[in-house]
């Protein structure tokens, strides 16, 4: 693609709304629909502006579900607005009970939180300290290591294998003085899974040297997995009170903006986690939508199929262009570009495709979230010519943007 064409795409993708107009409309929006301004721009435009900021690239950087909540969740969301004046006790309690039933655990075996990132943060606060550190992977989801760093807990980050898979044996070997072992399964950002057998083996190994260490298995992408060797670690929580499983409504449920996550474990372990969670962190709207989405398995199956199709297309396009793509069972792919991924990320961003920040130590790999089929076609049309451009192979020492500090 010529640089002119790329520029045209970038311009088209970044149709700007003036910051002043946006600010004016948002200020008025807080006053309510009845005084919505006739002057600035329409309500739907403003809502769109709230959602996208003032630039709209293809958003393939945060592992979000491009389709959003399913019909049942949307209906529940609308209905919940009638209860906006009420505290969320009833909805939250119903959600907790539904999750307990769904996972066949007792009611006290579940806690909910505004996003599973909160569960990871609270769990790290509960179980790590300057004497009991964190064992994690590199790269993996960084919420636990960020929290551990904040409180001065030692961190052992075990490099993933070349395939992108977690090295669970090496992680278990480092656990002797650990307060918490973090296992992300599937692993973000590499995408692959650890088998049920390998996770059970990790737990057994850790128990030999660190009987009290908590093992947190993050299953944020659980519902996307189709590999038969995979299974949830929830069954391990029944036998081992110090295993915690976290899940989220942000991924396949399509509700990242509603902020709902939860943990399953022994009640005593969860009550230690709860000490670090805000009380009443969910809203009626988020709890009601989650409850409905939990019951909408048809929607989830459809999301899984759509993701599988668009992921296969993207893999084929990248591999066809000569790049190694790591195994993935999630809604993103990690592609080895063989060059500085930060430079490529900046070039893609300029051309209208937002992919993820680099994840050290895999500095030549780019993580591409899977959007709709149409989005992935457009993304490949933009990205592959950029990769073919020798400029993308020149390291330009691109500085981190604020976005890179995001946690997805
Ligand atoms: C592996 C993993 N865990 C947890 C989270 C946090 O998700 P949320 O706080 O939206 O539930 C993410 C978000 O991308 C993730 O990738």
Describe this structure in words.
This protein is α/β, with parallel strands linked by helices and 408 residues long. It folds into three domains: 17-54, no CATH class; 55-68 and 298-397, Aspartate Aminotransferase, domain 1 (Alpha-Beta Complex), CATH 3.90.1150.10; 71-294, Aspartate Aminotransferase, domain 2 (3-Layer(aba) Sandwich). The protein has 15 helices and twelve strands. The strands form three sheets. It has a seven-stranded mixed β-sheet with strand order 2-8-7-6-5-3-4, with helices on both faces. A three-stranded antiparallel β-sheet has the order 9-10-12. Strand 6, helix 10 and strand 7 form a beta-alpha-beta unit. Helix 4 runs antiparallel to helix 12 (284-294) and helix 5 packs parallel to helix 12 (284-294). The radius of gyration is 22 Å and the shape is globular. The relative contact order is 0.15. Residues 1-44, 49-53 and 401-405 have low confidence and may be disordered. Residues 63, 115-117, 141, 184, 188, 218, 220, 248, 250, 256, 261, 408 line the site of pyridoxal-5'-phosphate (PLP).
List keywords for this structure.
Aspartate Aminotransferase, domain 2; disordered N terminus; seven-stranded mixed β-sheet; 42% helix; Aspartate Aminotransferase, domain 1; 15 helices; binds pyridoxal-5'-phosphate; 3 domains; 408 residues; alpha/beta
What's the CATH H-level superfamily name of the largest domain? Type I PLP-dependent aspartate aminotransferase-like (Major domain)
The residue ranges in which pLDDT falls below 50 over 5 or more consecutive positions are 1-44, 49-53, 401-405
CATH architecture of the largest domain: 3-Layer(aba) Sandwich
Rounded to the nearest angstrom, the distance between the terminal CA atoms is 30 Å
Biggest β-sheet: count, sense, barrel?
7 strands, mixed
Spatial extent as radius of gyration: 22 Å
CATH topology name of the largest domain, in short, is Aspartate Aminotransferase, domain 2
How many discrete domains?
3
Summing up helix and strand content along with how strands pair, one would put the structural category as alpha/beta
Strand content bin: 5-15%
How do the SSEs run, as a string of H and E? HHHEHHEHEHEHEHEHEEHHHEEHEEH
Compute the average pLDDT: 88
| Biggest sheet: strand arrangement | 2-8-7-6-5-3-4
Helix content class:
40-55%
The level 1 CATH classification of the largest domain is Alpha Beta
């Amino acid at each position: 693609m010529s640089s002119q064409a790329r520029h045209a795409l970038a311009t088209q993708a970044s149709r700007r709304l003036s910051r002043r107009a946006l600010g004016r409309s948002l200020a008025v929006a807080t006053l309510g629909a009845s005084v919505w301004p006739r002057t600035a721009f329409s309500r739907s435009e403003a809502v769109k502006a709230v959602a996208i900021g003032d630039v709209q690239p293809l958003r393939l950087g945060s592992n979000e579900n491009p389709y959003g909540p399913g019909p049942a969740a949307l209906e529940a969301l609308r209905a919940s607005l009638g209860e906006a004046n009420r505290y969320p006790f009833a909805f939250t309690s119903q959600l907790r009970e539904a999750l307990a039933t769904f996972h066949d655990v007792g009611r006290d075996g579940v806690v909910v939180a505004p996003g599973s990132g909160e569960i990871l943060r609270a769990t790290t606060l509960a179980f790590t300290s300057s004497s009991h550190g964190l064992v994690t992977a590199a790269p993996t989801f960084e919420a636990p290591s960020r929290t551990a760093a904040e409180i001065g807990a030692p961190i052992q980050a075990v490099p993933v294998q070349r395939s992108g898979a977690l090295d669970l044996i090496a992680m278990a070997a480092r656990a002797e003085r650990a307060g918490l072992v973090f296992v992300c399964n599937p692993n973000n950002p590499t995408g692959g899974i650890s088998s049920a057998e390998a996770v059970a083996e990790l737990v057994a190994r850790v128990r030999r040297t660190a009987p009290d260490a908590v093992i947190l298995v993050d299953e944020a992408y659980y519902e996307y997995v189709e590999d038969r060797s995979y299974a949830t670690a929830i069954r391990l929580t029944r036998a081992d009170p110090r295993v915690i499983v976290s899940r989220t409504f942000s991924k396949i449920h399509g509700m990242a903006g509603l902020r709902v996550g939860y943990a399953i474990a022994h009640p005593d372990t969860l009550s230690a986690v709860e000490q670090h969670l805000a009380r009443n962190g969910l809203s009626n709207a988020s709890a009601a939508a989650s409850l409905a989405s939990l019951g909408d398995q048809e929607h989830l199956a459809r999301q899984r199929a759509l993701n599988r199709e668009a992921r296969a297309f993207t893999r084929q396009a990248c591999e066809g262009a000569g790049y190694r793509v790591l195994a993935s069972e999630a809604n993103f792919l990690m592609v080895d570009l063989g060059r500085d991924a930060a430079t490529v990320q900046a070039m893609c961003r300029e051309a209208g495709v937002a992919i993820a920040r680099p994840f050290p130590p895999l500095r030549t790999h780019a993580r591409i979230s899977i959007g709709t089929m149409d989005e992935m076609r457009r993304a490949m049309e933009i990205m592959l010519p950029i990769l073919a451009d020798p400029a993308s192979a020149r390291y330009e020492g691109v500085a981190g943007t604020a976005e890179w500090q995001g946690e997805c």
